[in-house]
Amino acid sequence: MTRIVVSAGEPSGDGHTAAVVRELERRWPGCEWSGMGGAEMAAAGVTRATRMEDLSTIGFTSVLAKVPSHVRLLRAMQRSMDDGAVDLAFLTDYPGFNLRVARMAARRRVPVLYYIAPQLWAWREARISLLREAVTRLAVILPFEEAFFTARGVPTTYVGHPLLDGVTPSKDEARRVLGIPDGRPVLGLFPGSRRIEVRRMWPALREAALLVRRAVPEVEVLVAGMSGLAYPQAQEFRICRGDSAAVMAASDAALCKSGTITLAAALAGTPLLICYRTDALSFFLARRMVRCAHIGLVNLVAERAMVPEYIQSAMTGTALAEGVLPLLDAGGRAAREQRSGLADVSARLGEPGAARRVADLAAELVTC
């Protein structure tokens, strides 16, 4: 029986890992999966030694509080590798923890497939040496990453972005499903998937939406909400929980937390503003450690400041409202120029089939 240790510590990584697990289950029925993951991995057949929901963090300060739990999990995964033959360590993103698992696996001669690379092109490039030593194959999802890591001696394959494997509804279809009348402008709010993100992002997003509604009374405001999270004083908006793809497709413009959701906007062709706010200490440290000119993935893929970014104190309701109002005019210059740039980003992301390509890499490592 093929035995694979898996580890994913974020909601997006949970879904992307689950897609690969399902692909490999079709090839290797009855494969034994164990490790850390979320609900989607559990549904795909992974026995979770630890729920990632119990360990997920954001920002430098909240990481510190979770250190003891991470240490306990690392020791448990070490015992798992010591107790029996493990054919593969399949690790997704979450580098603070997963790079330690990779080193532990490599020392025990377990092949390591690392999916969704640590963003060493942005900060902490010194960790490249650890990737070279511990990772058998790196599967990357951004088009510029393959050249970056290959040039630094890490065996790397660009597999395309997993978002391309999802279904992006058309604007008409999304509006029909959401019951939005023809001709009504729609503003989408995307405050993030974690409680602490929403708590920090929501007040400014809510204020911006209210200001937009004051300027355009007929606008429909949709919030891409998460189950179990609260959006205070959102009575004037519609909370659409668990349906972010439809919200994005239906929107004429969007206010988005930085991250993968900005690439979803590119695939949907929805003009957007990027915003982000974290605690003061985390931002202070990030400013001194991060080398990127942009925080939004859509701008990084575009290799230019195509989408405006509002960070920390610049992320005010007034600034966001003023920035997004021109984008709500679908025929206006600002919206047209952004849609053109977003189409270019979408083309750069590659073709569907990321999960299949990652499964191919896994098969090569297990049989070699």
Question: What does it look like?
Answer:
By secondary structure, this protein is an alpha/beta fold. The protein folds into 2 domains: 3-165 and 352-367, 3-Layer(aba) Sandwich (Rossmann fold), CATH 3.40.50.2000; 171-348, 3-Layer(aba) Sandwich (Rossmann fold). Helix content is 46%, strand content 17%. It has 16 helices and 13 strands. The chain has helices at residues 11-27, 39-44, 60-65, 67-83, 95-107, 128-134, 145-151, 171-178, 195-215, 244-250, 261-268, 280-289, 297-302, 317-324, 333-348, 354-367; strands at residues 3-8, 32-37, 47-51, 88-92, 112-115, 137-140, 156-158, 186-190, 220-225, 238-241, 253-257, 272-276, 309-311. The protein has a 7-stranded parallel beta sheet, with helices on both faces. It has a 6-stranded parallel beta sheet with strand order 10-9-8-11-12-13, sandwiched between helices. Helix 11 links the parallel strand 11 (253-257) and strand 12 (272-276). Helix 5 (95-107) runs parallel beside helix 6 and helix 11 crosses helix 15. The longest helix is centred in the middle third of the chain and has 21 residues, at 195-215. It is elongated. The protein starts with a strand and ends with a helix. The model is unreliable at 57-65 (pLDDT under 50).
